[in-house]
Amino acid sequence: MPEKSIVSYTAMLSAYANNGRITNARKLFDEMPQRTVATWNAMITAYIRNMIRVNGIEEAFRLFLRMPVRNAVSYTAMIMGFVKAGRFDEAERLYEGIPLKWRDPSCSNVLINGYLKSGKLEEAVTVFEGMVEKNVVSWSSMVDGYCKNGRLSEARKLFDTMEESKNEFTWCSMIDGYMKVGRFEDGFQLFLQMRRESQVGIGPTVVTVIFESCGRIGRYKEGCQVHGLVLHLGFDFDVFLGNSIIAMYARFGCIDEARNLFNTMSEKDVVSWNSLIYGYVHAGRIEQAYELFEKAEFKDSVSWTTLITGFSNKGLTKKCIDLFDKMPERDDVAWTAFISGFVSNGEHEEAICWFLQMIRNEIRPNPLTLSSLLSASASLAFLSLGLQMHALIFKMDMENDLSIQNSLVSMYSKCGSVNDAHNIFKSIAKPNIVSFNSMITGFAHNGFGEEALDLFKQLVSEGQEPNAVTFLGILSACTHMGFVEMGWQLFRSMKTFFNVEPGPDHYACMVDLLGRAGLLDEATKLIKSMPIEPHSGVWGALLGASRNHTRVDLARLAARKILELEPNNAAPYVVLSDIYSFIGKRRDEEQMRLSQRLRGIKKSPGCSWITVQDKIFYFLDRFVKHASITHSDDCLPFVYKLLLLFNLTADDEVMDQMKRIT
């Protein structure tokens, strides 16, 4: 048998290491009669690659210190080990001791990438600027680092002044950087420049970035253009590229195009199936989504969660429960989608019950789960539940999560605790537009119009851009406070100064504002000037104002328009009947009520609720013959029994009234 050479020893050592057999590799290393630098480097690299399973970094460093001779590979491997272990101080000390001839570019690139992955951009810049020799990896890493930290101008400056030829990663990093911050035009123009000037050529990675961005922001034309380019260039449609195109068309709602591409793919993975299932859900074609789900060759939690979301969007919460019960594994994302579905469908108590089940199953809620529960608390005005959720948020150390802070502001506002909402808002380090909108709306709905206006001014002064929701909140504040001139100024500024197109809800706010001020003719003129078709809410605002100011002509107009849009809406009949009754036109009143009965249109019963010892009790308004008995009086006997049942007390006057009724 021929004698083993150092090369064969080293090859065997590397084979052991690649298979995770570190003990065997070290035994072979110790038995070797001779060792070269390559052998030492192989053993050090083996420890570093497996340092989670063994105390690799310490063993690697001991070997490094014992090395009789080192080279650039030795230093690069050891620095990589310290970087992977997060021991940057030791990596820096070792880096500073490297002979200059071995430092650049490999060792420097390893340290730069380590800093960038750990979010240490400035340290990476220092190493980069100190390099004597840079290669395309050095430049590309820094361009990517600047982009991922949102410093696009510095990234572009570096990109334009690169001394090395750009590779696909460089172009892709810069293009993706623009796309991630919403600068689609800049990113797409750079893509076209790459097509014209780059010697690298367009590759699958960069077109995938374009497809993802086009799908995310709805750029259908550009997405189709790039798809055409891919076909023209004759790309091989591997599963990664095919999935990105399917996902793009799915987001566009072009489900037939997505399905055609899906059918032509020779290889499919779970992402392929999930993308198409999402497309059907997004297009509202839930039956076909379910059919595809049943046929899917691959399924994961995303498949199940997407389908549950689809049924939830259709209001089919019982079907959601059936699917959820069948799920093989439920992670926090699945639980969140499931619970959020109940909240979005107004089944708040069901959401609370399932959340408790989630806790019992020891699934840790994520910020979206907690935000959904806070939304349920807000919708029910269930402050005690909201307080419990807030305590849980503190316990889970999530109080500084921005989405949760915004949900807390909204919850406290809707529960009437405006001071608590404002305190939360003031504690937010960097409030975004959602934060401002939640607080402005909270002030508006609780009668703090001046405070809402002040906050709007603060928003603008800080450089935030108000959106459609902001203006709904601030116009609502003007409505509640009767600020007609201010309302007009803000409404007119929407398009002129802030490039926000007023929608039907904004017009409804203005009609309500003018109507409350008695300016009904002005409100009618505004409706007739609308560039879009008024919805029932706009006419409803005019109808309510017409009742308050006894304008029969406008009430008839508004009622007719509402019934054209919503034939089964009872409000026009009720309001016109009330107006006729008020002005003494009994025959017209009776005719209106008769017309309502003949059409079988019933007024939706009013609903209110109270919470007693964390239980929710609902009261539905009923038709009563005796006009002297009001809705609240009708409920009082039951409320009195609740107080006795739970051994609660009310003040003497309230108790006396209850006893008389019961």
TrEMBL record:
InterPro entries associated with the record: E_motif (IPR046848), PPR_At4g14850-like_plant (IPR046960), PPR_rpt (IPR002885), TPR-like_helical_dom_sf (IPR011990)
Superkingdom, taxonomy of origin: Eukaryota
PPR repeats: 5-39, 71-105, 135-169, 269-303, 331-365, 432-466
Keywords: Repeat
Annotated GO biological process: RNA modification
Pfam families, per database record: E_motif (PF20431), PPR (PF01535), PPR_1 (PF12854), PPR_2 (PF13041)
An example Gene Ontology molecular-function term: RNA binding
Annotated protein name in UniProt: Pentatricopeptide repeat-containing protein
Lineage, broadest ranks: Eukaryota, Viridiplantae, Streptophyta, Embryophyta, Tracheophyta
